């Protein structure tokens, strides 16, 4: 299995410099059904990547058809080699909830909007927990709890965020697996 995988949403990204892809990176490239041709220079660069370049044609059209294929292949790579670092190169923020879920489960996955962003940081995120676990929320570690609570709220669609204090406390209580006392959560809500 490769060191890392760069799953490219070509339908969403468009121009990409394949020559910038370092050794050890496998590149599954997802082409939408409406994409019938690619530039000659792109094809030449793809051929230079050899077996690391994997073109995947999406047959049929449908809302998010290409995205579902990317999600499937991402899961397949992580199942085969859980330690593989994966980057989804797409401007589609619809991948973010899946990626947050995978990171919480201990996988090294992120989304990048550009090739520079995708290749800029190949290190795993500092907050990644061991697979299948979230770092335990500890009492008194207010800064970490506050950061995690903010991340949770930022990752929640605005319409789905709790509107009242009581609801927010309940969401945080559930999120922290009821390991943080409610009194401490009340203080946390005050700081949010």
What does this molecule look like?
This protein has 192 residues and is α/β, with parallel strands linked by helices. It has two domains: 117 residues, 5'-nuclease (Rossmann fold), CATH 3.40.50.1010; 50 residues, no CATH class. It has eight helices and five strands. Strands 3-2-1-4-5 form a five-stranded parallel β-sheet. Strand 1, helix 1 and strand 2 form a beta-alpha-beta unit. It is elongated and about 60 Å long. About 10% of the residues have low confidence.
Layout of helices and strands:
Elements: E1 4-9, H1 10-13, E2 25-31, H2 40-49, E3 53-57, H3 65-80, E4 85-89, H4 96-104, E5 109-112, H5 115-120, H6 142-154, H7 165-175, H8 182-191
Parallel strand pairs: 1-2, 1-4, 2-3, 4-5
Helix pairs in contact: 7-8
Summarize the structure.
This protein is of the alpha/beta class.
What tags apply to this protein structure?
192 residues, Rossmann fold, 2 domains, five-stranded parallel sheet, 8 helices
| Quantity of strands, as a count | 5
- Fourth CATH level, the homologous superfamily of the largest domain: 5'-nuclease
Class per helix and strand makeup: alpha/beta
Provide the CATH architecture of the largest domain: 3-Layer(aba) Sandwich
Residue windows where pLDDT falls under 50 for at least 5 positions: 121-139
What is the level 1 CATH name of the largest domain?
A: Alpha Beta
Instruction: Give the % helix.
Output: 40-55%
Q: What does the radius of gyration come to?
A: 20 Å
Q: Sketch the topology as an H/E string, one letter per element.
A: EHEHEHEHEHHHH
Strand content: 5-15%
Which oligomeric state applies? single chain
Quickly count the helices.
Answer: 8
CATH topology descriptor of the largest domain:
Rossmann fold
Give the termini distance in whole angstroms. 43 Å
Question: Judging from the principal axes of the Cα atoms, what is the shape?
Answer: elongated
- The residue-averaged pLDDT reads 81
């Amino acid at each position: 299995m490769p060191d890392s995988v760069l799953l490219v949403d070509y339908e969403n990204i468009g121009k990409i410099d394949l020559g910038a892809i370092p050794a050890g990176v496998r590149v599954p490239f997802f082409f939408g059904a409406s994409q019938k041709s690619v530039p000659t220079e792109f094809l030449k660069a793809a051929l230079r990547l050899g077996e690391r370049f994997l073109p995947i044609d999406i047959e049929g059209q449908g809302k998010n058809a290409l995205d579902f294929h990317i999600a499937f292949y991402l899961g397949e790579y992580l199942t085969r080699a859980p330690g593989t670092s994966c980057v989804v190169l797409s401007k589609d923020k619809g991948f973010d909830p899946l990626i947050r879920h995978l990171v919480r489960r201990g996988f090294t996955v992120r989304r990048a909007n550009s090739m520079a962003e995708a290749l800029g940081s190949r290190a795993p995120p500092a907050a990644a927990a061991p697979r299948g676990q979230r770092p335990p929320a500890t009492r008194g570690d207010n800064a970490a709890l506050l950061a995690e609570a903010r991340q949770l709220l930022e990752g929640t669609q605005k319409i789905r965020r709790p509107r009242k204090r009581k609801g927010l406390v309940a969401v945080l209580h559930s999120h922290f697996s009821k390991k943080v006392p409610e009194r401490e959560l009340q203080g946390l809500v005050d700081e949010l």
